[in-house]
Design a protein that fits this description.
Elements (H helix, E strand, L loop, with lengths): L1 H9 L4 E4 L5 H11 L6 H9 L3 E6 L5 E10 L2 E9 L8 H15 L4 E6 L4 H9 L3 E11 L5 E10 L1
Length: 160
């Protein structure tokens, strides 16, 4: 039990920074480790080139723990991607990333955060509900799935 507490205390010593091109290799490695259908180098570079807000979260030794990308549209922020390294999931890091995103959205005068999530991603759904996101729609066949199948997306919004 004490080792778990010590690990949780270590997460208090994390550092956010804006994602840049030098972070891309770490982000790609995390994407490939976390998802069966990861974002590509091109997706990530295009997002940075488009000026989307992108942030990384690293531990005190500089290891990537997670990241997010968001896009501002009118008075909403659209969460494009958020990922926590699989071996450190369940320790509040996703919440830290979302808190950072919501803080940035509020600072920018946005009125809401919008996102899509797979119905099969129960943990993410639980976190989003806990933070006050509500389902507003469903997109049919939005995500690629095993074989040639597709998975729907649940569209959620949090008013700020």
């Amino acid at each position: 039990m004490s080792s778990v507490l010590n690990q949780d205390k270590a997460w208090q010593k994390v550092c956010f920074s804006k994602m840049n091109v030098t972070d891309i290799e770490d982000v790609i490695a995390l994407e490939q480790n976390a998802y069966p259908f990861p974002w590509t180098r091109g997706n990530l570079l295009d997002s940075l080139d488009s000026g989307y807000e992108a942030w990384v979260l690293r531990d005190e030794d500089g290891r990537l723990l997670g990241y997010f990308l968001m896009m501002q549209a009118l008075e909403e922020v659209h969460l494009l991607n958020i990922t926590v390294r699989p071996d450190v999931q369940g320790r509040g890091l996703g919440r830290k990333l979302l808190d950072k995103l919501i803080g940035l959205a509020r600072e920018a005068g946005m009125h809401a955060v919008l996102l899509e999530v797979r119905p099969s991603n129960n943990h993410a759904l639980m976190v989003y509900h806990h933070l006050g996101f509500v389902q507003i729609a469903q997109r049919k066949n939005y995500y690629p799935a095993a074989g040639s199948a597709r998975e729907d997306a649940i569209v959620m919004r949090k008013m700020l």
